[in-house]
Each structure stands twice: as C-alpha cells, then as structure tokens.
C-alpha cells in the first residue's frame, strides 16, 4: 500500500501536470479541453491510483494485460481506461473481458491484432472500441508500430474491415532519451494529414497520442490530444525483480 506522503505528492504532481498541459495548449491557441492527460499507472498499487481518482482524475492508462485485469475490477467503474502498451493478438479478448470500461487501445500495430480486437468486441457484445494505429516514427527495430509508409493501409483496414472498432487516430513512442522528439512528432502529424486525406476524415476530430513525462508539453504544442504521463505523476517505476 502506498504511504500517505506518496499519495499526497502524486495528487499534487497531477495538478501540476494538468496545469502545464493547459498552458501548453493555450500557448499555441489550442483548446485545453481537447487534450487528455492519461495518467499511466503501470506497476503502481491500486491505493495510489485511487488517490489520484479521489483528486478528481478519471483517465488512466496501463501497459500490461495481466496487471491491468487484476487492478481494474478493484477501482471505480467510471474510470476511462486506456491500454497504452504492446498488445499481443491472443490477449485481445482477455483484455476486453477483464476491463469492460476500456475506452481506447493506443497500440494497434497490425491487421492481426485489429481483427482479434474486432472479433472480441463482437463476441462480448460490448460497444465499439476506439483504437489508435501505432506508427514507428523513430525507425528503431525494437519499437512496435507500422512504418509511416504503411499507415494509410492499416488505418483503412481498421476503418473499413473492423466494424466493431472505431478508428480514432494515431499513436507513437519517441526515442527513450527524447533526442529526436520534434522529428517523431512531426512525422506523426504528417501521417495524420495523409490518413485524413485518404479516409476523408477531419483533422479536428482526429486523435494523436504522443508525448510522455519528458516531452508532453512539446507534444501538445505540436498537436497531441493524448499525453501519456506516468513517472512525473506517480514517481519512479517499481519494476518487479526478475528471478535468476
């Protein structure tokens, strides 16, 4: 269980992040209400998430399916949950069944996972699921996501062939050291323009998920509608030690 001092610090940090996000939007003439702060709570205890919830926040993100389905039932049903990690196709139904109030999946990186999610939504009889297509904007082999040149094809597949999914936009993860952040973000906004033109979508209604703890203000200034902020709110990650 999180110590009271940690919980108070997290609530204060959340308020600071939300204020910084609003100011970043205002600096470039954007409506701050169009920017969603996803508080990424992976590895953090339910008690700490509850503290942030009690401070008024409702939008949270998790990365790992098993951890997610363990924690979500212990928390209020009006939370707007986002899955922000890499999703394996064979975990799609497990995730959706375990988190009925899942609002969005940020990392659809191929037709296979899209098809599995589409079938899972149908078989569970839940309302259509919003999804974002993940784009590998940094060119790193270790990163999930489609190449920018393939994004229109995958977006079209989700939009046309997956009736139980709502194609809502694009997501990217930048370089770990943030060195190429502007280029990553610029690539994603260019992809947005291409997809909107190809699918006849309005950029005003198009979601972009980009920006994390170290660069979320810059991401907002460059058009992000979802910033995924974890350690700045919750503190450093407590990853379980691997057994040797």
From TrEMBL:
It comes from the Eukaryota. Pyridoxal 5'-phosphate (PLP)-binding protein, which may be involved in intracellular homeostatic regulation of pyridoxal 5'-phosphate (PLP), the active form of vitamin B6. This is Pyridoxal phosphate homeostasis protein. Belongs to the pyridoxal phosphate-binding protein YggS/PROSC family. Its cofactor is pyridoxal 5'-phosphate. The keyword Amino-acid biosynthesis does not apply. The modification N6-(pyridoxal phosphate)lysine is found at residue 42. GO terms for molecular function: pyridoxal phosphate binding. Residues 24-237 form the Alanine racemase N-terminal domain. Keywords: Pyridoxal phosphate. Pfam families: Ala_racemase_N (PF01168). The keyword Metal-binding does not apply. GO terms for cellular component: cytoplasm.
């Amino acid at each position: 269980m999180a110590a009271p001092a940690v919980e108070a610090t997290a609530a204060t940090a959340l308020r600071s992040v939300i204020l910084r996000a609003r100011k970043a939007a205002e600096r470039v003439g954007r409506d701050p209400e169009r920017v969603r702060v996803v508080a990424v709570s992976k590895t953090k205890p339910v008690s700490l998430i509850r503290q942030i919830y009690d401070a008024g926040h409702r939008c949270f993100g998790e990365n790992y399916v098993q951890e997610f389905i363990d924690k979500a039932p212990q928390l209020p049903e009006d939370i707007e949950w986002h899955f922000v990690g890499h999703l394996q196709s064979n975990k799609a139904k497990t995730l959706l069944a375990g988190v009925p109030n899942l609002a969005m999946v940020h990392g659809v990186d191929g037709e296979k996972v899209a098809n599995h999610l589409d079938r899972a939504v149908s078989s569970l009889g839940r309302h259509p699921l919003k999804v974002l297509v993940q784009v590998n904007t940094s060119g790193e082999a270790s990163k999930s996501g489609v190449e920018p040149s393939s994004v229109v094809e995958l977006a079209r597949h989700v939009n046309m062939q997956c009736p139980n999914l709502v194609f809502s936009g694009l997501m990217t993860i930048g370089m770990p050291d943030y060195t190429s952040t502007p280029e990553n973000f610029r690539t994603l906004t260019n992809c947005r323009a291409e997809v909107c033109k190809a699918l006849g979508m309005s950029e005003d209604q198009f979601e972009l998920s980009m920006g994390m703890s170290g660069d979320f203000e810059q991401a907002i200034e460059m058009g992000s509608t979802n910033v995924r902020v974890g350690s700045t709110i919750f503190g450093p990650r407590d990853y379980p030690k691997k057994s040797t």
